[in-house]
Amino acid sequence: MKYYDEEQMGKIRQRLEKEILTWKDATARKMFGSPTFFHKKSFFAFLVTKGIVITKLSEVERAELSKNGKGRSFEMTGAKVPKSWIMMSLEKPEDIQKVITFVKKSYEGLVKA
Hints:
The chain is an alpha+beta fold and 113 residues long. It has one domain: Aspartate Aminotransferase, domain 1. Helices cover 36% and strands 27% of the residues. It has 3 helices and 6 strands, in the order H-E-E-E-E-H-E-E-H. The chain has a 6-stranded antiparallel sheet. A hairpin with a 2-residue loop joins strand 1 (26-31) and strand 2 (34-39). The termini are far apart. The model has no long low-confidence stretch (mean pLDDT 89).
């Protein structure tokens, strides 16, 4: 199953990269066909069609996103996925403003580690 469609997500990917790649030691490369964002060798977020999966949030941050309806657990057919991964919807480039704070928190969790 294909989880990422560049035709639908290209403008969102470009806008995210423009922001994220200014962060110290942040890089982007494809992993399993999806643009994935790394701090050094550890990834903190990746794009899927119509969303972004954030992988390094605290339990409190995940609960906050789930409670207000902005985030939901990420599920992948036929694969075991950590329950800590949360997906937020991204339909258009302007939606990045509602997720970037949480993407940055995921990144910062790796910087502090």
